[in-house]
Amino acid sequence: MKHLLNLLAAVALLVWGTHLVRTGILRVFGANLRHVLARSIDSRPAAALAGLGVTALVQSSTATALIVSSFVGQGLVALPIALAVMLGADVGTSLMALVFSLDLSWLSPLFIFVGVVLFISRQAGPVGRFGRVLIGLGLMLLALRLVAESTQIMVQSPAVKAVLATLSSDLLLEITVGAGLTVLAYSSLAIVLLTATLAATGAIPPDVALGLVLGANLGSGLLGVLVTMRSGEEARQVPLGNLVFKAIGVLAAMPFVGLWLKLTQPYLDNATTVVSFHLAFNFVVALLCIGFTGKVALWVERWLPKPDNGFVAGRPHHLDPTALATPSLAISCATREALHQADIVETMLLGMLRVIRENDARLSEELRRMDDTVDELYSAIKYYLTKVSREALGEEESRRWTDIISFTINMEQVGDIIERILIDIEDKKINKGRNFSDAGMAEICELHARLVDNLRLGMSVFLNGSVRDAQKLLEEKTRFRDLERAYAGTHLTRLSDNTVQSIETSSLHLDLISDLKRINSHICSIAYPILDSAGALAPSRLRAVQEATAGGDEASAL
């Protein structure tokens, strides 16, 4: 029983080490890996090579599948190209299995020692995360040695020998067991390495080991399908297509298991036979299937068609839950959704002027309903970001997390102000049949045009983080305030001249230009985090921002 527990503990340590390496690499290089994939997939061969390189680093084809699925779900990558990435990703995991099958146990104490030192000394930074990767690599190597030692002792037991002697090869059962273990362990790499180690110690026959390897490959494809089950149809297409390739490959390879053993056993030991079979399987599948990614993509699109209403609650949905495992990717998804929220606010702002000019009550009602969508977007983005682990974010990503929250709050408040303006226009202008004077309308149009330009500039600042544009946006706040004061003065002058239209709409006019100034203030607030992080924010401005934030927190608490 003691030796069995030691074996189970070693297997658990192997799975945990694989998890540490995968998550550590994603935390250190997540954004860069995403950019590598995005820039390297202009053709199917290039896509396969990009998938191979990224997966060899991450040591998880499932993680690569999640990233590529998100690209497809966002319309950034065509499905055939994404399937080519996954074919390369499977070859990448096979290469890593071959590397880990070598006797690298002497590196285990070195990796663990250096990793712990780095992790403790710089836990929150990139150095600490790299230390986490080294710890994971060290634990994997240590676990493989412990598995070998435990199985060597166990196979000497008379009871175990009797069980192994009665073990007959049932390829379908082995494939099923291998697939199930892969899903449970969340890693085909860990199961392939475990199988190779058990075969090397004689715990399982080589033919059984090859059946388990085929099952691990099938389980890897099944795992991607299970992980993306709650995603949209487009994001689920990539894992399903990859599973099709794996299933075809397993069916085609089953008759050749005996031939592989016959050809390799005279020259290779059992462990090398297993991992080389794993590599050969994925390499041949990638080589033969890369030309059929378009055909399989058509099958998958037929099985999982895009919904006619590619919207959720009347809006595109970029908040992919599968991306939460990769914080940098989740931040990108939230950014896209925040920009969509701003697009809706821009639509409301543009429509507001039509309502003012044309007294269009029906349009006003439609625009006010859009504010509900803006509020829903704000709540969805906020809830999504709360599920992103702040500990897994680097300094820049953490700052971006805060910027997105701040941006969505400002957009939500702008939407609320526009809704109140529309209600006032309906009550005080449309229902009473009143109009602004020509001069007053010209002033409102001037302020509105500046407001639209500032909103678009603010969206650019939020997306690109340009310090120069942020400074320009902040300067617009002062200009807009001066214009608002000047137009309030000219309106009072028209009142003294007894202009009828100005008298009838005086209260509405003053409230409107004041509300437009408030909208502009929220838009210009987008510049503060950018300038603050660049050290370009004046101390007085910084104090004002901090006081405004504190006031907002107190209001929320109330």
Main sheet attributes: strand count, strand direction, barrel closure: none
Strands, total number: 0
How confident is the prediction overall: mean pLDDT? 81
Strand content: under 5%
Order of helices and strands: HHHHHHHHHHHHHHHHHHHHHHH
Can you count the helices? 23
Helix content: over 70%
Q: Can you summarize this structure?
A:
The chain is mainly α. Helix content is 81%, strand content 0%.
Can you walk through the features of this model?
This protein has 23 helices and no strands. It has 558 residues and is mainly alpha-helical. Helix 17 runs antiparallel to helix 21 (506-524) and helix 19 (467-496) runs antiparallel to helix 21. The protein is elongated. Mean pLDDT is 81; it is low at 309-314 and 545-558.
